[in-house]
């Protein structure tokens, strides 16, 4: 149930004022992959895609283009990456998955922007200019990815400790 809550939170945060690219999407996707139902891996994809369509068309009033499909494929890849954390949720593995997610999103999304839109020349120089223009956003994205991933993966451990401290009665702990 917590995995679904984190996905809904990730979508909801994107509709609220927040620093650009500082969102819980990576943490939610990794957590769902690691803890969510394998048979329902399609659920976060549908929820996030629906949120993207709403944001693109109605919130930002941008044109919808094929580069969005690249992002949705990235969502699926991060869910898959999260499934690889099921075997051993060690802090370094989780940190590595969050960092890999941040870097892969930066590389893939900016390549898609360069390839899809006419903002940059279709040359190596244009691609490098696209990546350079995105660097300020990368910092916030990485910070958000690391923070939310750490918090999401810590919540079950904290709940377990509280449950033990209050002899299994979490209502007393609340």
Explain this structure to me?
The protein is an all-alpha fold. The chain has one domain: Arp2/3 complex 21 kDa subunit ARPC3. Helices cover 76% and strands 0% of the residues. It has helices spanning 2-15, 25-35, 42-59, 67-83, 91-116, 124-165, 170-173. The chain is globular, with a radius of gyration of 18 Å.
Largest beta sheet, briefly?
none
- Compute the CA-based radius of gyration: 18 Å
Overall structural class, as computed from helix and strand content, comes to mainly alpha
Amount of beta strand: under 5%
On the 0 to 100 scale, the average pLDDT is 90
Tell me what the CATH architecture is: Orthogonal Bundle
Number of helices: 7
Q: What is the H/E order?
A: HHHHHHH
Shape: globular
Counting DSSP E segments of at least 2 residues, the number of strands comes to 0
Spans with pLDDT under 50 lasting ≥5 residues? none
| CATH topology call | Arp2/3 complex 21 kDa subunit ARPC3
> How many domains is the backbone divided into?
1
Query: Under the CATH scheme, which class?
Result: Mainly Alpha
Distance between the termini: 18 Å
Please bin the fraction of helical residues.
over 70%
């Amino acid at each position: 149930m917590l995995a679904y809550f984190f996905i809904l939170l990730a979508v909801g945060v994107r509709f609220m004022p927040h620093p650009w690219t500082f969102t819980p999407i990576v943490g939610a996707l990794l957590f769902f992959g690691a803890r969510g139902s394998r048979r329902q891996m399609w659920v976060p994809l549908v929820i996030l895609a629906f949120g993207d369509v709403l944001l693109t068309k109605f919130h930002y009033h941008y044109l919808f283009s094929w580069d969005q499909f690249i992002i949705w494929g990235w969502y699926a890849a991060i869910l898959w990456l999260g499934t690889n954390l099921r075997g051993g949720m060690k802090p370094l593995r989780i940190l590595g998955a969050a960092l890999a997610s941040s870097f892969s999103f930066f590389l893939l999304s900016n390549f898609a922007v360069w390839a899809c839109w006419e903002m940059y020349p279709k040359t190596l120089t244009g691609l490098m200019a696209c990546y350079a223009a995105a660097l300020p956003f990368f910092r916030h994205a990485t910070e958000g990815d690391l923070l939310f991933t750490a918090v999401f993966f810590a919540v079950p451990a904290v709940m377990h400790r509280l449950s033990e401290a209050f002899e299994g009665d979490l209502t007393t702990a609340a």
